[in-house]
Amino acid sequence: MRVLFMLLSEVNYGAVAVTGVLSLVLGFLWMAVIWKKPYQRDMYGKVAGPDEPSKATKIQSFIIYILVSFITSIAFSVCLQLWKAGGQAFGYDGDSLAGAFWFTMLLTAGYTLPFTVGKKVWQFKSWLVVAVDTSYEVVRFTMLLLIFWFWS
C-alpha cells in the first residue's frame, strides 16, 4: 500500500486535470463531429431522433466519463513512471520518447482492444464502431503520453 501512495504522490495532477478534460473534448470531436453520422448509425441504430437521451442523462454520462478519464490519466501516469524506472532496472532507455510511444501502444492494445472488439463480438456492433473507438483510444493515449512526457 505504501508503494501505491508513493507512486500516486509522483503523479502530475495538473496534467491529469488537463488530460481528463481533453479526453472528453477529443471524444466529442471524434464521435460527434468527425465520425458523427456513421458512428451514431452503427452504434445506436439511428443518426438522431426524438428518443434521444434526456439532458439529465447526458449530464450524468458526462460526469461519469470525466471521472473515468481522470482515473485513466492517473493510471497511465503511474504506468509511464514505472516504464521509465524500469529502463534502469532492465537495461532499456527509459528516457526514449520513441520507446515510450511503443510502450503506450502496447498498453492501448492490451487494455482497449478487449472492450472495443467486445462491441462487435458481444453487442453485435459494426466493425466501423470498433475502428472509431479503437482509433480514438490510440489518439487519446498518444495525447496522454505527449502531455505527461513533456509536462513532467
TrEMBL record:
Top-rank taxon: Bacteria
TM ranges: 12-35, 62-84, 96-115, 127-151
Keyword set includes Oxidoreductase: no
Keyword Methyltransferase (UniProt): no
UniProt keyword terms in alphabetical order: Membrane, Transmembrane, Transmembrane helix
UniProt protein name: DUF1761 domain-containing protein
Protein's organism: Paenibacillus montanisoli
